[in-house]
UniProtKB/TrEMBL annotation:
The protein's name in its UniProt record: Sensor-like histidine kinase SenX3
Subcellular location: Cell membrane
Keywords, sorted A to Z: Kinase, Membrane, Phosphoprotein, Transferase, Transmembrane, Transmembrane helix, Two-component regulatory system
MF-aspect GO terms: phosphoprotein phosphatase activity; phosphorelay sensor kinase activity
Catalysed reaction equations from the record: ATP + protein L-histidine = ADP + protein N-phospho-L-histidine
CDD domains: HATPase, HisKA
Organism: Streptomyces caelestis
A single GO BP: cellular response to phosphate starvation
């Protein structure tokens, strides 16, 4: 017990001194820390050995032999610690340079040379973060481009009817309007168009700001689609388009009736305006493994494959026209925002003679 006590005191003294040194150099390189750790291990063994040797009254020759053996171990341990420290520091610097490159806007490229398991795990995490940042930058650029297009198109769409309204108002004011009643009807039409556009902008701003408040209730899709078809029937008759809704299953959904009516209305109006006269717009609803799927199929002739990913983007119109019925390109963006607020999803794909918009909503227990 006495020998163990002497050994413990000697090793503890070396450990306390080593801890103090580590505290002083805590901001220095990892190489210095490893060297101190190796030195503490050897010093603890040497201190314990010397304390025990003096307690056992070893001869000077025996004590020098023990000291020499420990010193050789110290040299080897220190050199090994320095080499290991330099290797780890070199791998760390390579990782730092790679992380700096992707922090400046580039892509992260993991160092090719092998490293420790911890540095390899950190490298994998940085690589995954780099991929996410690249996707985020792409989305940001796409949104910025979409915003610029939207501002340009909305500016044109507002300027055109306002110029017409001003001209008609001046003609009425000067008393030179040949048909005042026709001018008044046209003014009312343009005002309603501007009102719809401002309403769409307000709705889209609420969606983007996360301020869209839903009041969900249990509704049958059969009733919801029936009301939407009734509301779109006058526009369909005007364009000579036939509305079909005979494949609607009476499945219940938990949705905000007002907002989902807007979704159906936007899809139907878009389909009717893109379908030629004597064409058909079909609405269907069914239950699937993913939930409740509501679809609107038109006869537009299809959408170019390169445009399919952009259909629900803000400002996308599918045409470069700036006059009705091109619209402001907000309807489908509003559809996606409302559906996503209901924890659903929207897709579009080409079918024979046209395209099919599908809205998938979470299923409700019967």
């Amino acid at each position: 017990m006495l020998i163990a006590l002497f050994a413990f005191l000697g090793a503890a003294t070396a450990g306390v001194l080593g801890a103090c040194v580590l505290l002083l150099i805590r901001r220095r390189s990892l190489t210095a820390h490893l060297a101190v750790v190796a030195g503490v291990a050897v010093a603890a063994m040497l201190a314990g050995t010397l304390a025990v040797a003096r307690a056992m009254f070893l001869s000077a020759h025996d004590l020098s032999v023990v000291t020499t053996v420990v010193a050789m171990a110290a040299v080897v341990s220190t050199v090994t610690a320095l080499l290991l420290g330099r290797w780890v520091v070199a791998r760390s610097r390579e990782l730092t340079l790679a992380a700096r490159s992707f922090g400046d806007g580039g892509d992260f490229a993991a160092p090719e040379r092998p490293s420790t398991a911890e540095l390899a795990a950190l490298s994998r995490e940085l690589e995954a973060t780099s991929v996410k940042l690249a996707e985020s930058r792409d989305r940001e650029r796409a949104l910025e481009s979409s915003r610029r297009e939207l501002v340009a198109w909305i500016s044109h769409d507002l300027r055109t009817p306002l110029a017409g309204l001003r001209a008609m108002a001046e003609a009425l004011e000067d008393g030179v309007a040949a048909e005042p009643d026709r001018y008044l009807r046209q003014i009312r039409t343009e005002v309603e168009r501007l009102n719809d556009m401002v309403g769409d902008l307000f709705e889209l701003s609420r969606i983007h700001a996360g301020a869209l408040t839903l009041s969900p209730s249990r509704i049958s899709l059969y009733d919801l689609i029936g009301d939407a078809l009734s509301g779109a029937d006058p526009l369909a008759r005007e364009h000579g388009v036939r509305l079909v809704g005979d494949r609607v299953e009476p499945v219940p959904v938990e949705v905000d009736g007002r907002e989902m009516s807007r979704v159906l209305g936007n899809l139907l109006v878009n389909a009717i305006r893109r379908t030629p006269a004597d064409g058909t717009v079909a609405v269907a609803a069914r239950r699937s493994d993913e939930g409740v799927v509501l679809s609107v199929t038109d006869g537009c002739g299809g959408i170019p494959e390169e445009d399919l990913p952009r259909v629900f983007d803000t400002g996308w119109r599918g045409t470069h026209a700036r006059t009705p019925p091109a619209g402001a390109g907000l309807g489908l963006a509003i559809v996606r925002g409302i559906v996503e607020a209901h924890r659903g999803s929207t897709t579009v794909r080409n079918v024979t003679g046209g395209c099919r918009f599908e809205v998938t909503l979470p299923a409700t227990e019967p």
